Every structure is written in structure tokens, then in C-alpha cells.
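Q: For a teaching handout, I want to show students what a protein-ligand complex looks like in C-alpha cell form. Below are the inputs, and the small molecule is NDP. Please produce the holo structure.
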Amino acid sequence: MTASIIDGKAVAAALRARIAGQVQTLPFTPGLRVVRVGEDPASGVYVRNKDRAAQQVGIDSATLHLPEETTEADLLALVRRLNDDPAVDGILVQLPLPAHIRAQTVLETIDPAKDVDGFHAVNAGRLATGQKGLVPCTPKGVMHLLAAAGATIAGARTVVLGRSNIVGKPMAALLLAADATVTIAHSRTRDLAAECRRAEILVAAVGRPGIVKGDWVSDGAIVIDVGINRLPNGGITGDVDFAPASERAGAITPVPGGVGPMTIACLLENTVEAAIARRQG
Ligand code: NDP
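A: Here is the structure, written as C-alpha cells, with NDP included.
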């Protein structure tokens, strides 16, 4: 079988267009503030892309760029000011933060109602207990891609590779909430290949180029590659050995052009959801 390619760029563009239409119908302008501390170059690119994408759909977005030597106390004070600002619906603190600032403390200071990254423990708890909340953008984007691929999730054998708080765990929680049978595999899993071969839906979020071999993919499986691994030539590659995997999979995401574009689109979706939810009290 040769897999069909799940086109994340197209799915993300359709989602952004839908959000832009929705923003136009709102009687208010949703507000997003992206906080960047220091000069990490990759963060600079991410923050610019988020800001630009938000503005393009009509969100009032701005980046607050603080110097590397900003103290944790000053950053927490800024987050609290944004929490109290009625014009701000979404707050995103770009990671990584400089080593002298405790990222978890900062993330837990964001008002959960404005936590558009969905990283606050309150939102993680809501997801785990099946309550409405803000869901981390990357796994949310994967759910959109699975819908676009026509995947039947209920009852499916799904395997998530990776158990981070920002991708693997919320991904597993979303699949479980959609009635999948979910296996979470990680660096201590005894036989990764055997676990993957059982998957009808396989989500790889490890951060190791080509860790998922072609013969780990069962015939007709849907394969979602979250991995972003930098190549020496400046390009990026995923966690799945794409060419052999696409010989067996039913559908597969490319890297780049798969999950990546969905993450920003879901940030915009979360910002609009947060804005509406806050105004509804
Ligand atoms: P983390 O490093 O936080 O987590 C990686 C996970 O992979 C861990 O659970 C780890 O297991 C597991 N792992 C590591 N090595 C192995 C191995 N040899 N075998 C099995 N499991 C292993 O990464 P993230 O979750 O933040 O990100 C994962 C990937 O997704 C990265 O490539 C990242 O760049 C990408 N990413 C892409 C996004 C996008 O927009 N497309 C957004 C966010 C991330 P253990 O817990 O046991 O250590």
C-alpha cells in the first residue's frame, strides 16, 4: 500500500480561514500576548510566526520581549498584570526560559482561563478528568489531522510514542476521550517495535530522527509524525522513517508540512475559545 499524505498545511489553512471568519462575527477583538525572554534564536522565529498568524486572523496580538537578565519576580509580575488586563484573553510564555527562571512556576502563574498553551496543571487536570478546558496546541492539532484523514478513533488501537506534558500525555488523554484504546510508549518501553506494530493509529512524539522504522508500521495504519529534528543542512526531519513507512501506512503526515502548521492554527483556535469563554463568565 502507498499511503495518502495528510496535508497539514492545507488543514491548517482551512482552520485559520474558519477562525478568521469567526473573529469577524465577534462583537469584540480577542487579545493575545506572547512573552519572550532572552535571545534564543529558534524562539524568535516561533514568536514572530505566532504573532503574525494571530494578526492575520484578526486577533489583537503583540509580543513582549524581555531581556535575558529579567528576574523571575519581574516576569511573574508581568504575567499577573496580563492576568488582570481585561483586553488580554490569551497569554503565551515562549519556552525555553533562561536557566535562572523556573518555567513551571511561570506557567502555573498564568490564569488558567488565559492559558492558551494549555500547560497549566488546572487545564491538564481538566483534560484528564474529561472537563472543558484549554488543550495543548500540538495534540489538539493532531486530532484535527486525524479528523481530516477520516480516521475512526473510537475503538481503535492507538499508540503514542512519548509521554511529555506538552505532547505525549495530552495526546493520549485526547485519544482516550475519543474512545480509543491507548498505549503510551517511552524510553523505558521494552519492545517499541512490537508496540508500534499493533497500532492502527500511531503518533510519534520522541524527538529522534527516524526512530520509527518502516516495518514498525502495520498495513494501512495512520501515522502522525510530531517529531521535529534539525538536520545539519538546516532542514528538519521527523521521527518516522518516512519512505518505507509510507509504503505500508494508509495515511501519513510529512515533516515538514504535517503537524507543525497545526500547532499555530490551534493556538489561534484556543485564543478565540478563551476569549469567548471569558466573556460568557
Ligand atoms: P520530550 O523530550 O519532552 O519527550 C520525548 C519523549 O520521547 C519522552 O517521553 C521520552 O521518554 C521519549 N523517548 C525519548 N527517547 C526514546 C526512545 N529511544 N525510545 C522511546 N521513547 C523515547 O519531547 P516533546 O514531547 O517536547 O517533543 C517530542 C518531539 O515533538 C520533538 O521532536 C519536538 O521537537 C516535537 N514537537 C513538535 C511540535 C510541532 O509543532 N510539530 C510541537 C512540540 C514538540 P521518557 O519520558 O522515558 O524520557
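A: Two things your students might notice: The chain has two domains: 28-114, 136-261. DSSP finds ten helices and eleven strands in the chain.
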